[in-house]
Amino acid sequence: MPVLATYNSNVIDNIARSAQLLRDAQLIINAQAAEDLQQIEVASLQLSSAQRVLNIDKLQALPIYRQRQLLHHWLGQDEPLPPAKQLVDDVFMLSQRGDADHQTALFWQARKQSYTICRYRQQLYRLSSEWSKWLALPLTKQIQPLSNLVVADAYSAAAQPVSVTLRSDDNFIWQVQMMPDALVKLLDSDQDDERFEITFAPLGRQQRVQTALASRPQAGKKLYQTLGVPVWLRESLVVVSAVSVQQDKEWPLLLVSPFESWILGTSRSLTDTTENIGVLDSAIRSNVIRNSLSINNAF
Q: What is the three-class DSSP state of 50?
């Protein structure tokens, strides 16, 4: 510094002023990236630090310099240190690919967690290692007898939803909440002693189900493609059904994943009247059955 001062006595003030200008410029860049992120992230698929998702079509509508800055900002969320430029460049190239190969995955060992960055269709995902471990936990079939739940609910001051935990660990919990009393009324059995159960069963690989997105029942890869379910979520699909114990009949109500749900079409062979289909559909649409995912531990 003394040597530089011999050439310009204002060198220290000039350097300080330049540093301040650079800080101001960085704040402007960060504000722009944060604003872009609000427009481009897929809010319905966000789960704190576990899963963050970008819409690639909206990302590509930005000038390239803003795309790169946004990716730098997006990757570095939840971490004290920013990602390396090489990682940002690799993620940018992944977002620009036009082929149908969705197998590419980038790995980032950050300060707090490790992440996998991958793409499915026109969405870019950043998945934490803890989230990936949770998705690998097995699902088991569960049965909830409605009659017992309704009797217990009758003694409460107001009807309360019953929560059924589909998968959980110390970090995340996935539940389906239902209103048993309202469900029984919607099912409206002609027999006073009719007993109903609600079952929650993992979707079998060859199990055929029909949603409003398809004109006929589908199974396996065709179903996943129709619903747009990425590979890492395909073992996290659960079929919710109403079962009449006496009549040995089953009405599939809902297909749920941790982030989405789809009303299922009901086979006529399993129903007495077409009105049953509309009644069961209304059970879903009126929030008698709700799907929820929450995070227990903020990383």
A: coil
